[in-house]
């Protein structure tokens, strides 16, 4: 699916020379009101995609997990009309410099200038057309690209039943030293505007999108809630889609040094404001959390760190919840992020093929692509987002400190223990067992497939084992009657199919939760 683009006229001349191995991007002198008038800072990113690549989409939709593709970039201090940017031997490149490329590629440039949203396709970034090029290391050739579009906001259109909230956050603004806003899409259920409806105050389902997601998913929620029969299959509540995007990517709604007090701001500012504005029930049992992947991690984290504020969590395929099983790494004991004890590459993405599986991307490849987009740690991709969420600033650059050396893969265990470990939910449960066992037992529903492409089931399995060991050791009281909470690893399910399974099961379970607490229709 192509990202919606807003017309913009901006020319870029890109020259690839076998001898010089350089790309030059020029901004013409002539301009108009549609173009930025002053110099813009950011990063010029050149993305290549082989015509043999297995994944669909334009080059700008990188990274392609099943078939990683080449990336080059250079910093731009201030590019204005008449200026130019050169990408040559000094460019950050993966898997190597231009003179190593051979074959047919689709080529696209992105001027990454939006500093508040880390993604390549963040609103306002400038994007070229796609040009097909035959690369020959022994032949000079000149390629001209036209950066003719700006990435548009993915926010859904507002309507009577879908409201976009964009309000300043005093807490985040003070902490970050710049203006930071709360952003959310509020989907109102059928009956909300009906003065004769028996319910005037409504429970709330807080939906946290996965990595790369935003408020756009609210449009699909609006459509589903309006369907005939939805009243019998979906929780009748106000659904609030939260915006998890920040300068480094998905911020996880976790309080951190790099992203600020995101969780505290949600609980102390945004939720009270929404409850005042939209006739929402102000009780814990009326505040439900759900999310998939990075959103699944966020929903579980918010529930465990605010056990009395939220009434239940429905999480599917969460990012690693136990850092001793961070995909295929034990961050506390393994010396290297890129290789195992036998020197084999650590896998990051697999594709199940019948009873077997095929590893399609390693951790080193994934981090190499991110580093090529922005070597300072601002790529907006997954590992850079984790380093911002769980880590601390590098004293030399102010950017997120590296979990591992980008060349050797050696893990910084001091950083892991000093900072990352505070976000390890297995350790959080161990530290606060007596307080969190009732929450796990009665409020947490977690589901993941045992063939998750990102190996996320490994951390869930480890967390389950630790919870059971603690329960037995402390003789913790089991649930009275039918158990409510669960952590389930679904045989045969993948990252995507787990989301589909969870969608139907969670909806029915939320309805039952609301009914038990006198909040259902």
Give the arrangement of secondary structure elements.
Elements: E1 5-7, E2 11-16, E3 23-26, E4 40-50, E5 71-79, E6 84-87, E7 92-94, E8 103-112, E9 126-128, E10 131-135, E11 141-151, E12 162-168, H1 170-176, E13 181-187, E14 204-208, H2 217-226, E15 238-242, E16 245-246, E17 249-250, E18 255-256, E19 260-261, H3 262-277, E20 287-292, H4 294-305, E21 312-316, E22 347-353, E23 356-362, H5 363-373, H6 382-390, H7 413-418, H8 425-431, H9 433-443, E24 444-449, H10 457-474, E25 486-490, H11 495-516
Helix pairs in contact: 8-10
Q: Can you offer a commentary on this structure?
A:
- This protein is an alpha+beta fold.
- The chain folds into three domains: 147 residues, no CATH class; 251 residues, 3-Layer(aba) Sandwich (Rossmann fold), CATH 3.40.50.1820; 99 residues, no CATH class.
- It is 25% helix and 26% strand.
- The protein is built from eleven helices and 25 strands.
- The strands form six sheets. Strands 1, 2, 4, 5, 7, 8, 9, 10 and 11 form a nine-stranded antiparallel β-sheet that branches. Strands 12-13-15-14-20-21-24-25 form an eight-stranded mixed β-sheet, sandwiched between helices. A two-stranded antiparallel sheet has the order 3-6.
- Strand 18 and strand 19 form a beta hairpin.
- Helix 8 packs parallel to helix 10.
- The radius of gyration is 24 Å and the shape is globular.
- It starts with a strand and ends in a 5-residue tail after the last helix.
């Amino acid at each position: 699916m192509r990202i919606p683009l807003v017309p913009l006229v901006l020319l870029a001349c890109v020259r690839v020379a076998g001898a010089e191995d350089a790309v030059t991007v020029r901004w013409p002198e002539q301009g108009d009101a549609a173009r930025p008038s002053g110099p813009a800072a950011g990063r010029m990113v050149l993305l290549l995609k082989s015509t043999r690549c297995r994944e669909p989409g334009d080059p700008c939709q990188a990274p392609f997990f099943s078939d990683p593709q080449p990336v080059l970039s250079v910093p731009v201090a201030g590019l204005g009309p008449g200026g130019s940017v050169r990408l040559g031997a000094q460019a950050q490149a993966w898997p190597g410099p231009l003179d190593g490329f051979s074959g047919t590629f689709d080529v696209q440039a992105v001027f990454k200038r939006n500093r508040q949203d880390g993604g390549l396709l963040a609103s306002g970034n400038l994007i070229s057309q796609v040009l097909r090029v035959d690369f020959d290391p022994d032949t000079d050739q000149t390629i001209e690209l036209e950066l003719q579009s700006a990435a548009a906001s993915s926010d859904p259109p507002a309507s009577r039943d879908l409201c976009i909230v964009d309000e300043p956050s005093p807490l985040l603004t003070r902490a970050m030293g710049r203006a930071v806003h709360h952003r959310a899409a509020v989907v109102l259920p059928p009956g909300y505007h009906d003065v004769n409806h028996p319910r005037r105050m409504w429970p709330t389902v807080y939906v946290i999108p996965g990595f790369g997601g935003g408020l756009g998913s609210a449009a699909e929620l609006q459509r589903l809630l309006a369907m005939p029969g939805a009243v019998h299959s979906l929780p009748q509540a106000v659904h609030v889609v939260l915006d998890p995007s920040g300068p480094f990517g998905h911020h996880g709604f976790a309080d951190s040094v790099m992203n600020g007090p995101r969780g505290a701001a949600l609980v102390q500012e945004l939720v009270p404001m929404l409850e005042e504005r939209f006739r929402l029930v102000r009780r814990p049992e009326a505040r439900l959390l759900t999310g998939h992947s990075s959103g699944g991690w966020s929903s579980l984290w918010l529930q465990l760190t605010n056990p009395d504020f939220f009434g239940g969590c429905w999480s599917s395929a969460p990012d690693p919840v136990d850092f001793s099983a961070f995909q295929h790494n034990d961050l506390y004991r393994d010396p290297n992020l890129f290789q195992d004890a036998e020197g084999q590459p650590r896998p990051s993405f697999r594709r199940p093929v019948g009873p077997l599986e095929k590893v399609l991307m390693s951790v080193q490849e994934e981090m190499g692509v991110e580093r090529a987009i922005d070597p300072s740690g601002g790529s907006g991709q997954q590992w850079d987002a984790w380093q911002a969420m769980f880590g601390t600033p590098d004293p030399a650059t102010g950017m997120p400190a590296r979990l591992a050396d980008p060349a050797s893969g050696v893990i910084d265990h001091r950083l892991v223990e000093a900072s990352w470990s505070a976000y390890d939910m297995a350790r959080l449960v161990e530290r606060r067992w007596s307080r969190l066992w009732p929450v796990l037992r009665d409020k947490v529903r977690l589901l993941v497939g045992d063939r998750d492409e990102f190996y996320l089931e490994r951390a869930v399995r480890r967390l389950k084992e630790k919870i059971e060991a603690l329960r037995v050791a402390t003789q913790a009281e089991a649930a009275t009657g039918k158990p409510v909470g669960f952590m389930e690893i679904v045989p045969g399910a993948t990252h995507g199919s787990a989301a589909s399974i969870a969608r139907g099961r969670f909806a029915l379970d939320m309805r039952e939760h609301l009914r038990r607490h006198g909040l259902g229709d």
